[in-house]
Prior knowledge:
By secondary structure, the protein is mainly alpha-helical. It is built from 21 helices and no strands.
Amino acid sequence: MFFFLLIGLLLLGIPVGYCIGVTSIVALVIKWGYPSLSFGLIAQMLVYGINNFPILAVPLFLLTGALMNEGGISSRIFGFAGSLVGHIRGGLAHVNVLASFIFSGMSGAAAADAAGLGQIEIKAMEDAGYDKDFSCAVTGASATIGPVVPPSVPLVLYGVLAGTSVSKLFIGGLVPGSLMVISLMVLCALISKRRGYPKGDRFRLNHLFTTFKKAILPLLTPVIIIGGIWTGVFTPTEAGGVAALYAGVLGLFVYREIKPRVLIATLRNVAITSTAILFILACAMIYNSALTRTQVPELVTNALFSISKDPLVILMLLNVVLFISGCFMSTAETITLLTPVIAPLLPKFGIDPIHFGLVMVLNLMIGQLTPPFGIVLYVLVRVGNIEFGRLVRACVPFYFPIAVVLFLIIFFSDLVTFLPNMVFGK
């Protein structure tokens, strides 16, 4: 009843926060009875659901990405990436992937990457003779790197809901994110060679130095974030505050591309987006309580134990569930709904929660490129001015390199856990 009611409300198009809250209250009424239900306690759950210091990182990183998009950062990063790899066959495709990886260290969200860098990348590739389909598909695939590497809004959400270290999740995303860059660049090289896409200007050290000077201040953003967390100077939440302040100073006072009117609009948009996410998280506290009281995690554990006790088999089953969910819900919604159910199971099957967090987010990134609800697809339809069906067909080859990296980190958990264990200890 619990899950069918939730799914039914979602299918009716009701916002996910209300779906979670209504389902949880109905489940608690059935469990306790209406006279015993304390609505005062439910109100307290809503308040304390977001009265959590790590959650503050969500609006801060969203603000950082928005300020970077408005502050003239994207073009400087794109220019620097072009001077590095633009000279090889299909150079602008490689520039696209590399620039997204660099920008990912600032925004933490796939949609922000696709919307910010996407406009520059697609136009530059089309002007150089690349097909629109390929240009948009590369942009979409490279945008999925963002939530895997630090800072990452989905990893913050997972860390809070699973009660695990956000710092370890951030450091754990460095290797999978780097593998995504390599795998996507290999595919771009193969497609570029087959289709005869052009090379850029030959590599020139003085040009590299010039673009590096222009991009040096934005490039310091991921260094500040990752370095501060790595050395323990500040927490991920504090890193979000430092990054937002730094992005604001760059856009307002250094490059002077953010005008007061634009700043106000940016703050308003970030506030609206943050409020939607935080409301879902607030309702998730009632959801957690309902799951615990109705013993849903125990029921799911027993069901999985009846299938297998092998952690690898369980991981594969969970990945099937995640993939299907990711096709029909946003990343934030899927993490909010499934983490409270799955997190209690992980210790019972000997699965590291840090390892699973990266597996979960990387799996859901495929959903960002998958119809019917892949948010990156809809951003690219608008940014790239391309038909939805045409874009989906162009994205199909890019599912494979992302899936290869997913299977690598599923089967070789050390790819995720080695760095966090080395930096923070087990």
